[in-house]
């Protein structure tokens, strides 16, 4: 099996609890330390490209401090674009100063040979309830476990109930189609004096490219890469152009949606759940979170799966294994759910007293995942440092089609050419929802 070729069944996600995870060069390991690690050379240095927003990072540091016992942990959060090069440079040079890494499946996949085998750790966690399909994915195409599943997340819509007054008759906000969403947002803009109520995180640090990769295109085309410039993709982008016409122009300044939602600048917003949960926190009774819409092919949604691994040649390997075991424990899994809205990958029992905003997100993610027409999508797998380049191609499509008004087929052909040049250089297999293939490229 090749990296990224493992296929995740819906059964895996249903068994995994609630779940369908968001994301400085490490020099002398100078990062944030917890548990009093400081510059202690015996500390477990955990390098991760997750929890990049300051508030998420601080909350996770508090979880580490409160829950991880027996080991001192130095948590180093670095930019996703630097993660791969830092990891590779340290392992390949034999000068490894990090004890463990925490990153998305797609970030770890290119480094399978740089990660030690963790079959012993997985065997010791038999009570955690990891589904076999998730642990198969953690083998990164080989026979041995290369990372332990850590947490997972997805993206949904946050809706202020004020917007429901414009919901067209017969539309179920919990089971919308993309056409119904467009009709709703068109009516809402008209009813709101011409001011749009819909927004996406299209700022410099926004995750709007994930909307195109994991939701819009799979829902309209059934794929992400292989269908990049198909006739169905043209239809999808024509739809996006029409939806953008009913969206808040200030969306191009939004790095996350919870802040403009809190301020009332928009009433409906799409984003990663961790970047939405603050919006309903003060007045949860005024809010809903709902699944993404369905398109002609089904309800495309993105599973964001993160894992914990240990680099080859890493110091403090035994303590690092202990830290990984503790981070998959039920209390830590639930703390991360409560604090940062990243969902368990274990059988940790979901409590009834979740904060209202987290409970909303959990319900929306669960309903999205369990939809009979669900199409599971993964973030790009195996791109490493090139992931940012591929993300930019999807962003370019949005800019040129929705902002600049260029012809859709022309834009898709040009961007597909650049996409194929990258994919031909990397020679990586396709990932879901595209069909498994030895080398992935746009048709």
Describe the protein.
Keywords: Cell membrane, Lipoprotein, Membrane, Palmitate, Signal. It comes from Mangrovihabitans endophyticus. Residues 1-27 form the signal peptide. The structure is a single chain. The chain is an alpha/beta fold and 443 residues long. It folds into two domains: 10-153 and 303-351, D-Maltodextrin-Binding Protein, domain 2 (3-Layer(aba) Sandwich), CATH 3.40.190.10; 155-302 and 377-426, D-Maltodextrin-Binding Protein, domain 2 (3-Layer(aba) Sandwich). It is 39% helix and 12% strand. The chain has 15 helices and twelve strands. Strands 1-3-2-4-11-5 form a six-stranded mixed beta sheet, sandwiched between helices. Strands 7-8-6-9 form a four-stranded mixed beta sheet, with helices on one face. The protein has a two-stranded parallel ribbon with strand order 10-12. Strand 2 (44-48), helix 2 and strand 3 (73-77) form a beta-alpha-beta unit. Helix 8 crosses helix 14. 54% of the residues are buried. The model is unreliable at 1-36 (pLDDT under 50).
The radius of gyration is 21 Å
Q: List SSEs in N-to-C order.
A: HEEHEHEHHHEEHEHHHEEEEHHHEHH
Please name the CATH topology of the largest domain. D-Maltodextrin-Binding Protein, domain 2
> How is the main sheet built?
6 strands, mixed
Which segments are poorly predicted (pLDDT under 50) over 5 or more consecutive residues? 1-36
> First CA to last CA: what distance?
23 Å
Known CATH architecture of the largest domain: 3-Layer(aba) Sandwich
Q: Which CATH C-level class of the largest domain is it?
A: Alpha Beta
Mean pLDDT across every amino acid position = 90
Number of strands: 12
Name the strands of the widest sheet in spatial order.
Answer: 1-3-2-4-11-5
Class from secondary-structure proportions: alpha/beta
